[in-house]
Design brief:
Layout lengths: L2 H11 L2 H6 L2 E9 L2 E8 L1 H4 L3 H11 L5 E5 L15 H17 L4 E9 L2 E8 L7 H16 L5 E4 L17
Helix pairs in contact: 1-4, 5-6
Length: 175
């Protein structure tokens, strides 16, 4: 079994079923000089929250892997569509092109309130406002997606009035 086959087997056993169930996919593009390159397709929200687990699983099972890179279809670096522009403009592009499509299945939406000194302030709307899993969505979905495309971002602050949510996707009673 070659190193590519080993990596594919690790993906199949660890994160790939979760990624596929969430509407995404991963495939091994190459392994060169210890660097594993994976191509992510489908919903970014299916893969990005699982990247730390994926990295740990692959490195533990295949010690020859020293780095894991994820690219978009066609080989563009993850977040490569963010392009140039000021920080606020690039954050807005990630929200519009990656985050909002991923959370729209739960009737959710994220609005950019502002960016100050590297801190991104967002407001969660629709099914996300008042959702009992909003913090999970923020920390395991939205923040990793922003960090992948905007590495100089300091952090994300949720300024949503969750108590005013009228139609949360998961109400507190469903917890």
């Amino acid at each position: 079994m070659g190193i590519v086959d080993e990596v594919a087997a690790v993906l199949e056993r660890s994160v790939l079923p979760s990624v596929i169930a969430r509407g995404g996919n991963l495939r091994v593009v190459s392994v060169e000089s210890g660097v594993l390159t994976l191509e992510m397709s489908g919903s970014p929200g299916a893969t990005l929250p699982l990247l730390p687990r994926l990295d740990a699983s692959v490195r533990a099972a295949v010690p020859e892997i020293t780095e894991v890179r994820v690219v978009e279809p066609g080989g563009a670096p993850l977040g490569g569509n963010v392009g140039s522009g000021d920080l606020e403009e690039r954050v807005r592009r990630v929200i519009d092109s990656e985050i909002n499509p991923a959370i729209s299945a739960h009737r959710g939406r994220v609005a950019l309130v502002g960016v100050e000194q590297g801190w991104v302030r967002i407001r969660m709307e629709g099914g996300c406002q008042g959702c009992s899993l909003a913090e999970v969505t923020l920390r395991q979905g939205i923040e990793p997606m922003l960090r992948a495309g905007i590495p100089e971002m300091v952090g994300v602050m949720d300024v949503t009035d969750h108590g005013a949510g009228t139609d949360p996707y998961f109400s507190a009673a469903k917890r």
